Amino acid sequence: MKTFNEFDLEPKVLQAITELGFEESTPIQEKAIPIAMAGRDLIGQAQTGTGKTAAFGIPLVNNISANEERIVALVMTPTRELAIQVAEEIGKLARFKGIRTLPIYGGQDIVRQIRALRKKPQIIIGTPGRLLDHINRKTIRLDDVSYVVLDEADEMLDMGFMDDIQAILKLVPEDRQTMLFSATMPPNIQKLAQQFLRNPEHVSVIPK
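^ thats the sequence. predicted structure below, dont judge the formating
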């Protein structure tokens, strides 16, 4: 497996990775990070627990400037628990760069989220329903988003979020990088990928 020194990462990102105790990349990280860093659209087939959050989190943190005063990256997750977990992990990767992350999910006071949004986070991690709620209130604008990640896409579609995801993706500039991660690739995921991804690279670490 490749070490993280081999990915041409910024020193502050490498410092965070080292402090987290990561030495060698996992199979999904080794395959996905170079594609993500190059700005290509990506479909990653990987189970939970394979290190896929860092597979998209490291390139996002590496490629985003801490000076940005806008939402640069949007990560969609199926559940509140995953949104919190992904936000925490990306937050740890971003700590030396000073990039701000914010989880947005239902069940938490929306006023509190609106206050947190005023601090101009660069990376938002949210569940589709609550994201749409903010979009409709105009408390979240996606006009400047450069990166979109669909995490556990099959689970999001199983939970009935297809319409919400499509509505959100239509509001993001077409000139963006989109990464989709899913444990399975049923027809509805393939259809979503065809609709919103441009010539994606496909990487898979699912055991045969």
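Residues 115 and 139 are 10 Å apart (CA to CA).
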